[in-house]
Amino acid sequence: MGFLSVVLWLSLGLIVKDAAASDWCYTGCEHTPTHWKEMSGSFCGESKQSPININTSVVRTDTKLLDFTFVNFSDKDVIESITNNGHTVKCILKANAVEVSGGGLNGTYSTIQFHFHWGDTEHHPGSEHTVNGERYPMEMHVVSLKKGLTADEAQERPDGIAVLGFFINATEDGHMSEAWETLTSYLGNISEIDKTVEVNKKISISDLIGHVNLSKFYRYMGSLTTPNCSEAVVWTVFHEPISVKSDVIIHDNSPSKWHLLPDSHCGGEHQSPINIDKGSVEMDESLNAFKFTNFDNKHAISYMINTGHTVKCVLKDDLVEVSGGGLGHDYFTLQFHFHWGNESQDSEGSEHTVDFKRYPMEVHIVHKRKDLTLDEALMTPDGLAVLGFFIEAEQTSNGHSDSDETAHRTSSNREAWQKLTNYLSTIEDIDSEVKVTNEISIDDLLGSVKSYYRYSGSLTTPSCNEAVVWTVFEESVKVDHDLIVVLQDWNAA
Ligand SMILES: [Zn+2]
Ligand SMILES: [Zn+2]
Description:
Helix content is 12%, strand content 30%. The protein is mainly beta.
């Protein structure tokens, strides 16, 4: 059997975003998601906004939600054109050809288009909706207007628009249906913003949806997820994801960097995190000390952002550096973030384990090779370097001797962690960010830890690129127990 590899590596690097042509964006313009609410005529930030996290423990069963009736979803001639609107790939349907009703919808809706969301590497890769905090790699939205209403009229009604949301999951072995191959084959022709091409190959919406059970779905009243964020949408989010071969997962939301990831690497041979088996660790004399530049700079953190699954501290550009440590290259420090596990997945604590011991938390400091762009780094086995630190609560009472030095270090570290966690309450919404003005250096947070484990691995979230030189420090960083609780609780909020 031959793999039909749909390798579409769209390099749209030449497109320079024209601020006037597009007044909102996900990254790289004035009106990023946290600023959408400031745009005129915008409903963004109001009370019934989408997307949401679907907490399955508080979902109620509604017996009034019967099955849907789909008209012409399996017609292979209804997709008229496919367009790059600068934010997404949108497939426009022939007028008055496709309809949806039932499923608890109040009336019949005319289906006008479907499009995709795949997040961006800067904020959160993946779907817009989350289920118990978990994101899928991609999400498809099938958009319908209440029959007889214009798009403007539909936006005036709380149920004027019906959107069917499908999660899209990547599978390695799962069959990638012909329909997806056909659809993605058009992408190479719409690499420029506002480019539209006619679709003349046979693809139906049902072909794309595949075997998803259409009688299992979540329902809520919400909004459009892009400006003007009108609160006019009856949302249907199907439980089961559409499974496609990982080749078609679209990656990176920034229009100037649209890529169809040629391959999601999740499940590959050099995946992280790992369990570090101390018995099989070998000493390596070529691993020397690290040289940290500006780890003691108290103004290196630019802002903190709630990515939807962690808190990330983004550093100022080209300021903090790491070399030595057997890395063989110089690296810029981009950001650091935290992992404290996921209650619903029963994986509380650090990502790496040592002899299967899990620590309460792990910090990852992410670096990129200075001589590579981020895109290049993601495709290079040592393009990224991540420093991992285990975090655990310091033992204060049980006769642990405190030398002056550790006492001193602990107090500066306590103050820095306090300052950092004080920001958390201001970024409780996904994608919200706060400028860091307090004096906090990385050294203040992490102190001095020396011995480390080294292995070649991957990013621990999609697309799991095997591009990471991992350094996991042996000694844990000790912080107040309270601060660990603050972070873990913040996640639950
Ligand atoms: Zn959408
Ligand atoms: Zn991480």
